[in-house]
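Sample A.
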Amino acid sequence: MTPTRKKRLMAIVLILLGVGIATVLFLTAFKENILFYKSPSEVLAGDYPKARNFRIGGMVKKGSIIKSTNSLDVEFYVTDYAKDVKVNYSGLLPDLFRDNQGMIAIGQLDNNGVFQAEEILAKHDENYMPPEVAASLKEKPSNYETTDNSNNLDKEDK
């Protein structure tokens, strides 16, 4: 093998090695940062990633928002009209966050079955609903009560 061919071969091997390392790093970072979307029914069925962040979405259950008077803590229930999940959040809520509005929360489910949100995203205009939320919302059952207080919600689902 001539010295020129050796140099070309070495360059090709180094390029392939560099591309391989970059691909592995990219795929590792992508896998760690992907956020799965789950509806309240899926979460209560146990179909969610354990010990890592995921997104939960649905509608804010009417009458369930409880804001702390001396801090930024808030708790509420998110529903897909079949099941409800309690959400705790500490921080500023989006201006459009209110009862019966579409929302997505990012965080983790704790050992008590309460979703600890790190970020809350709210529906941003009258005509838009995040596709994941729209797909997960089922037809509202006729026996679903929208005026329940958080104290009267079914605990048996948890």
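Sample B.
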Amino acid sequence: MITDDGRATFRERGFVVVPGVLTGEQLTAWRQVVDELLAGEPLPAGLAGPYFLWPRFGPDGHALLDLYRQAGVAELAAELLRPDLTVQDPDFAQVALTVPPWPHRPGGPHVDGLTPGEPDGRPGTFSMLAGVWLTDQRETDRGNLWVWPGTHLRFGQYLAERGADALTRVDEMNPGPYPKIALGEPMQPTGPAGSVLFAHYLLAHNIGGHDGTDADDRRETIYYRLLAGGHRDRWREVVTDPLVELRRGPGRVNG
């Protein structure tokens, strides 16, 4: 369950970590699916650093969609959204691994879904990113995501001033892509295996390094890009008013 404080954190900082979503048994099942996927697309020999798989969910479904539903990730995400909005099932996942040692520090952030965009020309916006942590991230520099708190609001202001279609002008936001706005100091969210990170679409973020040795566990996260019902029809409103889809605490007006 996400508390009013958690919702306030998400609105103000652009992300929140919810611990204890997966049980030990569920973690074992999720990691087994990752191992099965890697059997078909194995890690390159000697790899140190990131490795991604992008399984899509066809009409026959997928184990990662089944596990997502069983864990109630959509129901948690809905607690961050206005009560009149639902969460659509994702149609793919990102399996994100970081194999140590990889002492990387990101030079800056990016925003997802722009290169390439959607087939119809719309940028690939979504409501929020959900990252299911299959390995422990209680320490920093263990493959943790880097985020720049509050940048979702400043990015929204940038687009409100220039128009939502400025999001498609990627050349104006390179490198990244991310606009040249005040970023502030980055941080690395932390928490135990079984936690779920929710991050606003516009939040500045990037992959971080893994300072462990080659004897340490790789970092494993499953990401889902979640859309609230009707998001594609109102994406321009969402990116110029980053709080429009989000829920507020009791007695407060949404938006």
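B remarks: The chain is about 25% helix and 15% strand. The first helix runs from residue 4 to 13.
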